[in-house]
Amino acid sequence: MTGVTSGLWGLAWRSAWSRRFVLALTVLSVALASFLLTSIERVRADVAHSFTQAVSGTDLIVGARSGSLQLLLYSVFRVGQASHNIRLDSLEVLHRHRAVAWVVPLSLGDSHRSFPVVGTVSAYFDHFRHGDGQALRMAEGRRFEGLHDVVLGAEVARRLGYRLGSELVLSHGDGALEGTDHDDHPFQVVGILAPTGTPVDRSLHISLDAMDALHQGGSWGLGGLPGMSREVTAALVGLHSRTAVFSVQRAVSAHRGEPLMAILPGVVLDELWQVVGVGERVLQGISALVAAVSLAGLVAVILAGLDSRRRELAVLRAVGASGRHIWALLSLEGGLLVCLGVALGWLASVAASVALMDAVWLQAGVVLRPWVVTPEQLTALAALLLAGWLACLWPGWRAYRMALADGLSPRA
Amino acid sequence: MTGMGGMVGTSPVAVSVEGLQFEWPGASGRLLDIPRWELRGGTRVLVLGPSGSGKSTLLSLLAGVRISAQGRVAVMGADWAGLPSGRRDAWRADHVGYVFQQFNLLPYLSALDNVTLPCRFSRSRRQRAGDPARAGAELLAALGLPEGLWSQRADQLSVGQQQRVAAARALIGKPGLVIADEPTSALDDDTRDQYMQVLLEACETAGAALVFVSHDRRLRHHFDRVCHLDHGRWLEETA
Known about the structure:
Helix content of chain A is 54%, strand content 14%. By secondary structure, chain A is α+β, with helices and mostly antiparallel strands.
């Protein structure tokens, strides 16, 4: 039996080699399906990953009492606006809580050419974390110190072509109204942050004092009204121990001075992803369709090649190959082609994401992870393998029937 | 013609047909009706009939590719209908050599590899051949294929050369029955006579019964027995 089987292997190989161009097309169509499926799945997973890693190392985010999603959106993603500000002295009360290690205030609402401006303190650069706890890193320059210093996110610098020493003017609000520029208070770029793949890249950072200076002595003529309490928009809070997170959250809610709320960013990020995850399912649907179309192409290629193989199959039958031999030959060939195609497609997808990693990061702020294989990717590849093999079995079955019906006299 | 006498009488029965009646599914009227027919090893039979007379059907019944519901067709002592289909394939591989009209060879194999193909599928053919490559070479030499062509790809050979390779393949490992389905129809007259000569000699050497189907009456002088098949009517010429 071993002689027969090894004989079959050799034959299968030489037969396949003689049809290598058609078979290469077949492999290519499987590889295309595998490439698209893997790539779409990779983008989906990495977008989700980048999204949920937008902030880390922050235990609570504190803001005026509103919706938790709203607070997350404006404090982390800089989308939308706060309904109310919070008083800086409320944060000082919070800072005195035993469990609280640090409080970083954020003052939002201004912009520069549609990029959001964040007024904060120098400790922001120490405590803000993203991804798996990575800290912010200066690519060039230093942190802000003076009232005219600004630190740019990587994308702001790249898009607007700013370098260290560039001068710029901030706008009040989203800058949509004429004459709302703080043009009497120009800023100078003193630092540029390294890319993070988070909304930080699209932000400009100035000190809280600079923010106050803009609004008090500036074009709005408020002139530093006496007795006006300093306000900020939100605050990032770090604890000595995560176990205290719920008690601090309750303490914030119970604050008497003004209505405040505190959210756990990880929990709300997940909630938010549930909302925007509809697009994720659309992507998955599209990749399934792509795979189905490629497999249909695979079946068509195999079926088209089958008639020309009739003679070969009849000769094999005549020299003693049984129906089972022919069946084995065809499904073996199909199985190997599908495996090869799936592997090639996967490799191509890895290669493509290595090649495009920087561009995708710069354009979309998404960090591609070429070497990460998610369970969803594995499932998709396994499903493609199975479907591809089944798609080869059908032509195989037809060929088997044809070989039996042709008997020993093939119609050439 | 000398092989007829004593030698054939003692040879084993290669083919035995009894009460065969085969009707094509859906076709009205009986297509094939052979009450009794027996061939011993070494016998050479020509089956003559016009195209569409049922020759291909007869051959597929003899080779056990089709099974008749009525009657018995046995090759080398085994009734095709009595074998399960897997065993039938194996028995055919062991005992039947087959030459087609055309397109006999796998184009991507060399002439010699085509000849030794049956030894890949049948252990007993392999054992009877001894060393398949050597047996194949001997057959090709006997059938007059120049040695320089043995390692050529099959699709680079002429039609006449291809038919010699096909004959060698049918004969390797000494099967009891060789079936030839109009192998000479694509050959010109000179090549045809030469081919017949070497095919018959090789069959005789192998001790195989040869059933040769053709519509060409000029071939009859090469054979021991001549049968006629005409739309199901079966008639054997008496010497």
